[in-house]
Amino acid sequence: MDAQELIKEQVTGHSIVLYMKGTPKSPQCGFSANAVAMLDACGAKEVFTVDVLTNPDIRQGIKTYANWPTIPQLYVKGEFVGGSDIMGEMYKTGELQKLLGA
User: Fold this and answer.
1) Which of 19, 30, 37, 48 could form a disulfide with 14 if both were Cys (CB 3.0 to 4.6 A apart)?
2) 65, 8 in Cβ contact below 8 A?
3) Domain segments of the chain: what residues?
């Protein structure tokens, strides 16, 4: 399975998917840490995370998949939501909480 097929399977096979640098318990960049903190604050359950640092094909492939140059990237119900900056704006307005069913 190539990277694009794997990414499609991941984003459509899980309700909430976060592509990040590191893991939720040990994020490897501030933006990933912020994304995890926002998901936690929203009470998001069963978040499927992918550490892009462990797979260079996914790291590059996710940028192509969403046509979005940065990581982290959040997907909800198969749809690309955005990166840490967009998540932050949505969190401030309450839109992220609504999207996640919080």
Assistant:
1) 48
2) yes
3) 3-99
